[in-house]
Amino acid sequence: MPGLLHSTGSLRTPTEGQRCFHELTPPRAESEHSKWRQKIGDMIEAFFDASEQTYGYRRIHADLLDNGISIDDDTVRKIMRERGLTPCQPGPKRLVATIAADVGDLPDLVRRDFTAQAPGRKLCGDITYIKTWEGWLFLATVLDCFSKKVVGYAMSDRMTSDLVVAALDKAAENVPFIPKVTIFHSDRGSQYMSADFANCATMYGVKRSVGRTGVCYDNAWAESFNGTLKNECVNRKQYPTRERAIKDITRYIELRYNSRRRHSALDYSTPNRVESEWFSRNTAA
Prior knowledge:
The protein is α/β, with parallel strands linked by helices. 42% of the residues lie in helices and 13% in strands.
C-alpha cells in the first residue's frame, strides 16, 4: 500500500480533477429566459434611441405594449437600469415669468384645469426664447388642452404682438374654434395684453383668459411644454443661426412631439392619435 502511494504521480489533486471535469463538460445552453431578456433589452434600447434618449421606463413600457409585448413596467425599469439607459433630465423650473403691468380685468376661466372634452375648446399659450449664435429666437405656441397637441406656433427674432397673433392664426387653421366657447389662456405678458392680440381673439370669437400676475402655475401646461422642448431638444444642441434653430424646433414639434411623443395625461398615447381618434368618432359619415 505504501508503494502505491508513492506511485501516484499521475493522479490529480481534487482541485485539478474538478477543473478537468469542467473543461470536459460542454457549457450549458443559454436559458430561454436569458434569450428573452436579451431580446427585450434590445427592443427597449431601440425604443430609447428612437425617443432620442428622452423616454423613461413608463413611455418605453407603453411602446412595448403597443407592439404586442406583454411585460410589466418594473421589468422595463430594471432592464433600463442594467443597460445604463437614463433619459435626459429637465433643468430647474422657471417659477416667475417676465410680465408686463396688469392691463384690464380679464378673468381666469381655466383655474389650472388644463383638460377639455373636444379639440379647439380650450387652448393655452406662452412665449419662450432660444439662444443662437446670432442672438435670441422667440417661439410662441398654442396648445390644445384636449389632445396636448401644439396646434399653432410662430418664431421670430422679435418678441412682439405679431408673434402671438401669428401663432393663434395658425391654431385657427388646425383646430375648430367655436365662437364664445373656445378659450385661450395665457399669462399677462404685454404681447397677450396688446390690442393686436385682443382684436385677433375677438375676430375668432375666442374668450381670453389670464392667470394671476407672476404666478406661472396658472399657465402650467404651456410652461410644461416649454420645459419639455428645452430638455428634449434645445438644451442638447447649439444653433449657429436662427434658421437652424427654426428647422430643428419645427422638426421636434411636427415629427416628434405631436406625432410620436407619448403623454402620461393621454394614457401614454400621442397627441395626433388622440385628435385623429376623436374626429373619427365624431365626424358624420
